[in-house]
Design goal:
Blueprint (H helix, E strand, L loop, with lengths): L5 E6 L18 H18 L5 E8 L7 H12 L2 E11 L6 H9 L4 E7 L3 H6 L6 H13 L5 E7 L6 H13 L4 E6 L9
Parallel strand pairs: 1-2, 2-3, 3-4, 4-5, 5-6
Helix pairs in contact: 1-2, 2-3
The protein binds iron/sulfur cluster.
Iron/sulfur cluster binds next to loops.
């Protein structure tokens, strides 16, 4: 059997839970996060010692709720597994992106960021339990551009009653003005075990 060309790493940690989300996630202390990162990297070493992947995608959860040491450890480890011209993506929550994080992404050859923006309306962001504002999202994009990371994608959500046509217009304008390379729209689904 041939080995896969694409690697997905799940970071199941968040700082808080959004009202609609039923992904695998938990709020954990630093010790648990450290152990998880070490375990994952050890497993990859064992299973894929000399393997190069065309794409590596770190999703969550909220991968950038890891501290700088954990993030750097994980990315440093993974960057050697990326093939030449490979795509290395990490999902991020906009409000957690800092200069140090952007530098860590750059140093470790991360070349694509997937931002969970969801909507441009701050009232709706609050309603669905997000902890960022649209201003945070703009700041994060600006910061990433400063660190030469321009391949930015964003997730948006639709399907809740409070969303108006103006909100859609605002989202489309935002996508255009921020020159996002890729966007995904997800329909709200009400799932068991969520606040909604
Ligand atoms: S949507 Fe993302 S940030 Fe919100 S709870 Fe789910 S995994 Fe965490």
């Amino acid at each position: 059997m041939s080995t896969p060309n694409h690697l997905y790493i799940h970071i199941p940690f968040c700082n808080s839970f959004c009202a609609y989300c039923d992904f695998k996630k938990t709020i954990a202390n630093e010790k648990i996060k450290n152990r998880y990162i070490k375990k994952i990297t050890n497993q990859i070493d064992k299973k894929y010692a000399n393997k190069k992947f065309k794409t590596i995608y770190i999703g969550g959860g909220t991968p950038n709720c890891l501290n700088n040491y954990q993030l750097n450890y994980l990315l440093k480890h993974l960057r050697d597994k990326l093939s030449i011209n490979g795509e290395f993506t990490i999902e991020c929550n906009p409000e957690l992106i800092t200069k140090d994080q952007a530098q860590i992404f750059l140093n470790n050859n991360v070349n694509r960021i997937s931002l969970g923006i969801q909507t441009t309306n701050n009232k709706l962001l609050k309603l669905i339990g997000r902890t960022h504002t649209i201003e945070d999202a703009k700041k994060a994009i600006y910061l990433l551009h400063q660190f030469q990371i321009k391949n930015i994608s964003a997730d948006f959500i639709y399907g809740f009653n409070e969303l108006t046509l103006k909100d859609f217009d605002d989202v489309f304008n935002f996508i255009k003005n921020q020159k996002l390379k890729h966007v995904s729209f997800y329909s709200l689904e009400i799932k068991d075990g969520t606040k909604f």
